[in-house]
User: Fold this.
Amino acid sequence: MTDRPVAIVTGGAGGIGQATSRRLAEDGALVVLADIDEAAAKAVADALMAGWVAGGAAGGDRRVEPAALDVTDPASVQRLVDDLVARFGRIDILVNNAGFPRDAPLTKMTDAEFRSVLDVCLFGSFACARAVAPVMIEHQYGRIVNMASRAYLGNPGQANYSAAKAGVVGLTKALAKELGRHNITVNAVAPGIIETDAVRAHPKYDLLTSLAHKQNSIRRLGSPEDVADAIAYLASARASFLTGDVLHVSGGRFS
Ligand code: NAD
Assistant:
């Protein structure tokens, strides 16, 4: 059992997941960094913990622990939730961050490319929310933050990703209405292009950067920390009268 808020960050080993896990732990949560890549989850959690220990007293009580999780598999999701409830007695925060694009022009997009993106981004967010909801309802408290993307407004070559992220926005609004009476808020963040390692290694990185300079009001790519800060606010007890909303973290790009 623990007195601290317990947070699950799905896809925690990736760029935005790592930054979010760090930020929530710095804000005092016990963070479960959950990822389908178990080895990466462990490496990232170990590195975060080692950094805090090396940093001395301020970091001494911060805590991130790794977990294996496939958000597309309800049995895997339930196993994690049952384990956390048995050990900690609570789950206060769920960040539905796991997701990926599989871009292709419409006429070339395969069934597998379409379905896999819907499965991880949309079904995964639903499956995780469904599993934590009974715990949050019992405690009459919860914060669910879903990962949308500015792409929910529509991008060419991203029929799968745009549909999935628009679905995440709809899911967010439906769950906000359904769970609000239990003091559970449900919001989404919609980042623009965020400079993760994967984006930095993208063959069109230079083009993406110059587009960001043209299309954004703030003339740069976003950082994982920009997104983590927005998530941390929505996940905090302070954000108690804000639900069903979509917070754009896009440097002012809305189209
Ligand atoms: P990333 O690829 O660095 O991280 C994604 C993580 O999700 C990886 O660690 C991966 O192992 C994990 N994952 C994949 N399938 C999973 C599954 N079935 N179950 C559990 N974990 C799984 O990506 P990122 O850039 O950090 O993106 C994180 C989220 O932010 C995604 O939902 C993405 O769509 C969204 N997003 C990213 C950007 C961007 O520019 N990077 C912009 C807008 C939205």
